[in-house]
Amino acid sequence: MHKRPTWWLDFLRIIWPLNYISAKMTRLPIIGRLFYQVMRPLFTGKNFNITYIPINRDIRGVGSTFLPERVLEELIRRSSYRATINRCTCRETEKCKNHPVENACLHLGEGARYLDRHIATPRTVEEAIGHVRMMIGRGLIPMLGRVRMDDFFYGTPNTGRSLTICFCCPCCCVLFKSVRYIPAEAQDSLVRLKGLRIIVDGSKCLRCGTCVETCFMGALSIQNSRIARDETLCKGCGMCANACPHDAVAMEVDDIEEAVGEIMWRIRQRIHIE
To answer: If you average pLDDT over every residue of the chain, what do you get?
Structure first.
């Protein structure tokens, strides 16, 4: 176990804004490029690869299957160990008024066994599944994959045996706030669910701009009195569909079995959780 005393989460809260500052620094001429080259290995390749799982129950093509629970429960049941971080640093740093800071990210695999009991709580399979359902029930968006920086933040060894599952709120998530500033190569490490499309019903859309304001990547815009989406920027988090006050935005998955299979394949290439 890598020691992380109780005050460690307070320390993370203090330094957490550096994540946002670092992302913006990559935009600086010359210095930004040099800084990114130093940080690049942590945010590309096998060290960083994540996917958002939209929580909208009406994703076309999914039928009666609730996508987040299906994917996450399968991973939980396969994992050899499970633990939750006691406090969400994103929400604590931003003083979140919409969601509690307690019981935050879920970590799966042998790497999670190293999490210090001062900052994390071991979970049984059923407890972990209950945690997932509770967090999704609060409207938090699951983000799962390999996050190399978590090895430092939470004291897990860099052995590729720890899967991070964050539950993100639009108001506080550090990635939602910073990822649009990092170079495209690192942005590509946020991989959209395979076959996921965003569909706007023109008969319902009033061009109010709510979805445009909600998109953390700036992938949506109003052009010629209609909503336009930049396919290269969209990360498929589903926030636009959840935020639309007129139910004009929907999500569609071409082949749910293929989409789930691709996530599992990508995880297996980077992380061993059994």
So the answer is: 91
Task: Give the rounded distance of the alpha carbon of 131 from its chain centre.
Answer: 16
213 and 167 share one domain: no
For residues 131 and 46, state if they share a domain: yes
Which stretches within 138-183 are classed as H helix?
149-154, 174-178
pLDDT(64) > 50? no
Question: Do residue 163 and residue 205 come from a single domain?
Answer: no
The Cα–Cα gap between 164 and 191 comes to: 15
Pick from 49, 55, 61: nearest CA to 238: 55
> Structure pTM?
0.92
Question: In the chain, what's the furthest Cα-to-Cα distance?
Answer: 57
* Residue 108, amino acid: L
124 phi-psi bin (left φ>0, alpha ψ -120 to 50, beta other): beta
Q: Residue 107 pairs with which residues in a beta bridge?
A: 83, 164
Give the pLDDT confidence score for residue 220 in this predicted structure: 93
Full residue range of the structural domain in which residue 124 is found:
8-193+255-270
Number of neighbours of residue 223 by Cβ within 10 angstroms: 8
pLDDT tens digits for 230-241? 989 999 998 998
| Residue 212 belongs to some domain of the structure | yes
3-state secondary structure of 211: helix
Distance between CA atoms of residues 85 and 97, nearest Å? 19
Q: Are residues 95 and 31 in the same domain?
A: yes
C-alpha span between 63 and 35 (Å, rounded) = 46
For residues 48 and 189, the answer to whether their CB atoms sit within 8 Å is yes
> Above 60 in pLDDT, residue 51?
yes
In angstroms, the CA 271 to CA 274 distance is 9
